[in-house]
Design goal:
Chain lengths: ~300, ~160
């Protein structure tokens, strides 16, 4: 079963995956071992750099007893001009499931159309990043005890930020109120705003961060991504525009969560790290149980009710 | 019928009538009619029409356009009337329909879409998300495409 955008999951399926991830936590932490994916091979196809996503998929597969193939774009056949279609034909024969990150938008859907094995989108240009969304939802549920009806502020590069695109889609389906904070050139694409509104989501758009956070349940910071800008001068105009410091959190709700898909540059000052609002490192760990749950779903493997 | 006399009746072929005024050249582009074949083509533009005020008409001799070819015109001439002519008579009338997907009619116009690599072999697919208001998106990257962008990106 492919996962290309959050549209591939119903709300019930998303919740069920979060429940699966919850049960897999002891394995994710290394406290238990259950080789549910023994004999299975995952192909990690990162045509664009990644740290957390690639490593967490790799550790997820290994903690469940499976094997991992890693393809990196450097020096590979891609540099020799091989099409994605041809690369995928090879992977179709070598692996049982593949994770793909690619600088071009639409690459994951294209790859899924090209092969039989299940494909998981780990980021396609400025498109989608649904496995990040699942781990974000998992983290939000840990902190707030629920994922529906929340007041969420999304901050930074909402134009090119694929994590923001996928997460806003998912949250809108769970009845969130969204405040989208970005500089004018990095506003959420209009077709996404249209989709969010048509699913009944209450949306506000703003350029000011601090007034937006006082009543927030979650503040989701994103990095302004230098690599997405066609022009360095355009990047310099908006780089570093939003920085959250501990002193900015004086009047926020006590259980307000600060999240970030990482890596951060200067969006979250280290003074926040020691506060109870800091959730971004727990969020990074949560990539492991949620991706375990996704791998099992893709490969049609049931997760036992109780894991000891 | 006076407006039709500008071009004589054809013996066999396809007549596309009631093309929005000024759009016949785009229609020809969409049908890959570029004069490279030897069959006669007649084009009249901006002629008065009792039905729509002003219109273009295209007569293609010795070629019967298929439904698939005609459906390409849904984006620019959805209300055009089509007649298949055999032996100077109307043998068939056809309607243009906008299907749920445009396959290999136009490329996605988004510069960073995976389909921008001309060597990638899978078909170009644009999905009709909604007919009214018209909304079309690339099946791969999801970017919305305007009719103008689609016409610029015809294959």
């Amino acid at each position: 079963m492919d996962l290309i955008t959050m549209d591939d999951l119903t709300n019930e399926e998303a919740i069920s995956l979060l429940d699966d991830a919850e049960r897999l936590l002891p394995i994710a932490r290394g406290d238990a071992y259950l080789p549910l994916l023994k004999g299975k091979v995952l192909a990690n196809l990162f045509f664009e750099n990644s740290t957390r996503t690639r490593l967490s998929f790799e550790t997820s597969m290994k903690r469940l007893g499976g094997e991992v193939l890693n393809l990196s774009e450097v020096g590979s056949s891609v540099k020799k001009g091989e099409t994605l279609y041809d690369t995928m034909q090879m992977i179709d024969g070598y692996a049982d499931v593949a994770v793909i990150r690619h600088p071009r938008q639409g690459a994951a859907q294209y790859a899924a159309d090209a092969v039989q094995i299940p494909i998981m989108n780990a980021g396609d240009g400025a498109g989608n990043h649904p496995t990040q969304t699942l781990l974000d939802l998992f983290t939000i549920r840990q902190g707030q005890g629920k994922i529906d009806g929340l007041n969420v502020v999304m901050v930074g590069d909402l134009r090119y930020g694929r994590t923001a695109h996928s997460l806003s889609h998912a949250l809108s389906r769970f009845g969130a109120s969204l405040t989208l904070v970005s500089p004018e050139p990095l506003k959420m694409p209009s077709e996404i705003v249209r989709d969010l509104k048509s699913s009944g989501c209450h949306i506000e758009e703003s350029e000011d961060l601090l007034p937006a956070i006082s009543s927030a349940d979650v503040v989701y910071m994103t990095r302004i991504q230098r690599e997405r800008f066609p022009d360095e001068a355009e990047y310099e105009k908006v780089a570093g525009i939003y920085t959250l410091k501990a002193e900015d959190l004086r009047s926020v709700q006590s259980d307000m969560m600060v999240m970030h898909p990482l890596p951060r540059v200067n969006e979250i000052h280290p003074s926040i790290d020691a506060t109870s609002h800091a959730w971004y490192f727990k969020q990074a760990f949560n990539g492991v149980p949620t991706r375990m749950a996704l791998l099992c779903r893709s490969l049609g493997i049931d997760i036992p009710e109780a894991i000891v | 019928m006076s407006e039709m006399r500008r071009v004589s009746a054809i013996c066999n072929g396809t007549v596309i009538d009631h093309i929005p005024s000024g759009s016949a050249v785009q229609v020809m582009r969409m049908l890959h009619i570029d004069g490279s074949h030897s069959n006669p083509i007649s084009l009249v533009m901006n002629v008065p029409s009792s039905k729509v005020g002003s219109k273009d008409v295209l007569k293609i001799e010795d070629r019967e356009l298929s439904q698939e070819e005609l459906d390409r015109l849904a984006l620019i001439a959805p209300s055009a009337s089509i007649a298949i002519i055999r032996n100077y008579g109307v043998a068939e009338k056809r309607q243009i329909e906008l299907g749920s997907e445009l396959v290999n009619i136009a490329r996605c116009s988004f510069f960073n879409c995976i389909t921008q690599n001309p060597n990638e072999p899978l078909p170009h697919r644009l999905q009709v998300v909604s007919q009214d208001p018209l909304e079309i998106r690339c099946a791969y990257c999801g970017r919305a495409q305007s009719v103008g962008e689609i016409i610029e990106s015809l294959i």
